[in-house]
Amino acid sequence: MFTGIIQAIGTLQSIQPRGGDMRLRIATGKLDMTDVSLGDSIAVNGVCLTAIDFDAQHFAADVSNETLSLTSLGQLSPASEVNLEKALTLQTHLGGHLVSGHVDGLGEVLKLYDDGRSVRFHIKAPNELARYIANKGSICVDGVSLTVNKVTGAVFELNIVPHTIEETIIKHYSTGTQVNLEVDLIARYLERLLLGEHAADTTQDSGITQTFLAENGFLHP
C-alpha cells in the first residue's frame, strides 16, 4: 500500500528484455534507500513493483506482460523520469489517500492551461472507469494522490499546485500524454459489496446499473 505522496523523481537507466517481459533498472534520485530490503515494494508511476536488486542509489524490478499491457511503463525509454514512492508503514503520514499500486487503466491528457499559479488538467479516463470518479473524490495519477475538481462523463479536471508540479513528472505532461490511473479503493469495493449474493453470478454484468439498484431496493420512486 502507498499514500500517493511522491517521495522522489527517479530516472530509468536501462530496460532489459527478459523472456517476453522486461526488467527495469532505475536511479532513485533523492529517495532514501537505507531502509529498503530485497523484495520490498516501490511504486513507479503508480505501479507497485518488487525490488529484486538494489544499492544506495538504484534498484531493479521485473515488469510482467500483464503490467505492460495495462500501464504506461512499456512506453518508457532510458532517461525517462518516473515518480517513486516506497510502501507505507505504520509510521508513515497518510497525507494522500490509500493507494494499492494496482493500475486500473490509462488516461489521456486532453488539455492543460494555467489557472493562477496552478495548472488545470483535463484527463480522459477509460469509459469503464468513469463510474468510479467523483467530484471532490480522490484519484491516483501516475502515483500522485489528487483531488478531482470536476467530472463530465469520463473526463475529469485536476488543479495542480506549483509544489506538486515541481516534485513530480506532472511537469512533463502535454496534450496526448498517457497516464496511469488508479481509482479510489472504496469505490471499487463498494460496487462489489452492493452486488451482494449476485457477486458470484457469472450470467450477468458485474457492474452496478440503475436497473440493478431499482430491482434490489436501492432506488425508490
Describe the structure.
This protein is mostly beta strands and 221 residues long. Helix content is 13%, strand content 37%. A 7-stranded antiparallel β-sheet has the order 4-3-7-1-2-6-5. Strands 11-10-14-8-9-13-12 form a 7-stranded antiparallel β-sheet. Strand 10 (138-141) and strand 11 (144-147) form a beta hairpin.
**The CATH topology of the largest domain, please?**
Elongation Factor Tu (Ef-tu), domain 3
Describe the global form. globular
The residue fraction in helices comes out at 10-25%
Strand order of the largest sheet: 4-3-7-1-2-6-5
Tally of separate domains: 2
Strand content: 35-45%
Count of DSSP H/I helices: 4
C-alpha termini separation:
41 Å
Which secondary-structure class do the elements indicate?
A: mainly beta
CATH-scheme architecture of the largest domain? Beta Barrel
List the helices and strands and how they pair.
Elements: E1 8-18, E2 21-27, E3 41-44, E4 47-50, E5 53-54, E6 58-63, H1 65-70, E7 81-86, E8 105-115, E9 118-124, E10 138-141, E11 144-147, E12 150-152, E13 155-160, H2 162-167, E14 178-183, H3 185-195, H4 210-215
Antiparallel strand pairs: 1-2, 1-7, 2-6, 3-4, 3-7, 5-6, 8-9, 8-14, 9-13, 10-11, 10-14, 12-13
